[in-house]
Amino acid sequence: MAAERTIGGATRLAGLVGWPVAHSRSPQMHNAAYAALGLDWAYVAMPVAPQSLPAALAGLAALGFAGVNVTIPHKGAAAALCHERSAAAERARSVNTVLVGEDGRLRGETTDGDGMLDAIGTLPQGEALVLGAGGGARAAAAALAAAGAEVAVAARRPQAAVELAAELGVRAESWPPRRSPVLLVNATPVGQAGDAGELPVDPELLGEVVCDLAYRGDGAETGLAAAARRRGLRVVDGLDVLVGQGARSFRLLTGCEPPVEIMRAAVRNRSID
Ligand code: NDP
Question: In the predicted model, is pLDDT for residue 128 greater than 90?
Fold first, then answer.
């Protein structure tokens, strides 16, 4: 049974910075983990418009935040605003976790790529195709390449895909993709809001494993995950990835081992007795 928590003057603060953030399940995931471990911490979602990101990150130290997670569309900009970056964040030029040092300096980390790999487990043999060229796509493609996978990227702005592919030493593919990869990773927000049936790619092109980073705040399956399940494919959904990256982020922020099963239950609105 988790201890009851009171937010008070000594409570450590963390949160999520994004635009939008209302759909996010990170607050329920992290707060459930704090409660389970009896940590006097609180995690809040903070909608921050792109033009306000520099002021928001610069204010973290003054406000006493331990750190924040960063989501769409800020991961690339946050990487540039941090004073230092981990090797993975440097390689991907993408940051999803900002740690505030005692001296107020901001250290950027990314747990998106390794968290996605944790969620996928054994990688299928063959080509992985990453859709999108934003912060999530960069982290996913970099982690897959570092894990030895054969990687291609495709994005609706072809030049963005070409530049990302050149930086990471992977292949760029035309948009919309016309070949069926063994592993498809959706790192676009398609399916996350609006029409749940919207798909980022022709469902006829799905291969063996589909990993959708997008997830819906209303709990419904994304159109991509549903289409892959109907075809009997292995599906790693956005909530699986949320737990993978969130567990690594939790460890970085608090220094404690993440209670992964509690976090998994919290994002899926299940109770653990
Ligand atoms: P970014 O804004 O950095 O990048 C989004 C990418 O998707 C860009 O390449 C953008 O293209 C492209 N895109 C946007 N809309 C469309 C569209 N309608 N059709 C095709 N491509 C489109 O966002 P992030 O990389 O941070 O996040 C992408 C998605 O992944 C979000 O839904 C995010 O919530 C999710 N995510 C989830 C995680 C999890 O833990 N489950 C972890 C990381 C990401 P353009 O540049 O042309 O706009």
Answer: yes
